[in-house]
Amino acid sequence: MKTNILSKISQETIQSIKKIDFSKLDISDYNKNYITNLLPHINYYFKIYSDVINRLLEDENLFDYVVDFGGGHGFLSLFLKQLGMNVIYCDHNPLSVKTITTIKKEIGFGPDIIIEGSSSELLSFCKTHTITPKYLIATDLIEHVYDLNSLFADFQKLNPNLSMIFTTGSVKSNILKSIRLRKYMKKEETEVYFPARKLFLSEKYPELTFSEIKKLSSDTRGLIFPDIEQYISNYLKKNILPTIDVDKYNTCNPKTGNWTERILSKKQYRKIINAHDFQVSFGIGFYNDERSNYLISLIAKIVNFLMLHFYFVGLFFCPFLILKVNK
Description:
Order of helices and strands: HHHEHEHEHEHEHHHHEHHE
CATH class of the largest domain: Alpha Beta
Oligomer: single chain
Strand order of the largest sheet: 3-2-1-4-5-7-6
CATH architecture of the largest domain: 3-Layer(aba) Sandwich
């Protein structure tokens, strides 16, 4: 898609968003705070949106359906709508759904369809209404999805020729970022998720010994409560402990299945995606080089230039990965 068109529509959408007094909107405090913290950097986020849209749209048929999957506050949906596309917004969080619904009413435009749910609800809606989306965009989502195999299975049923693009800040090759994210995951696991699984097992299975509960609480890291029950059922019936395919850092909320910044390698992503008759190519993200601090802006510009022209620099320093997925 032409860069000048993206730039023009991007700025028009940003100006429309900036006219909104979010403090007066009937949305949750969490979403108000999130948007308030985002607004000073909105140009950077719209540069990311423009980049992924440009990578995704190989033609200029803007009248196809595009899914903003895990749309959150919905700013991407607003941008896509201003570009003239038929937009389906989908998010499993009811607070996010209320946010984009309220913003759409306030701003006078927004996604054509708003769905509360995940891939299964999206698939059900589209099948019921005979809609076949051509494109799907998901920013900062793929690292949180509980079951990627189920996700891509649903997308394959949605449209076997679906063109998708994902961004993720959980970059395994960025060593410094991986260390920071793993430290955060270790804290979440130790302080929140391990105790939650331990409490669940002690209440659900009083016949287990203290040592069994401790071991099983550790072994079931990366599972939600229903899957933990199946795991324990196999253990009690057959004394079998299936291997959970999760490294020593990645962990998820056992109640919701939301992974804490799960880090996967490009090889792992490729294996999962290829299994559902899609292929994936990887791109390098970029830093925000529009800062109030001149020195930081200069450093960001230099690093962005080096990442663009030298692969090894991009591999080890990129702030986010871009996954382009298609048939």
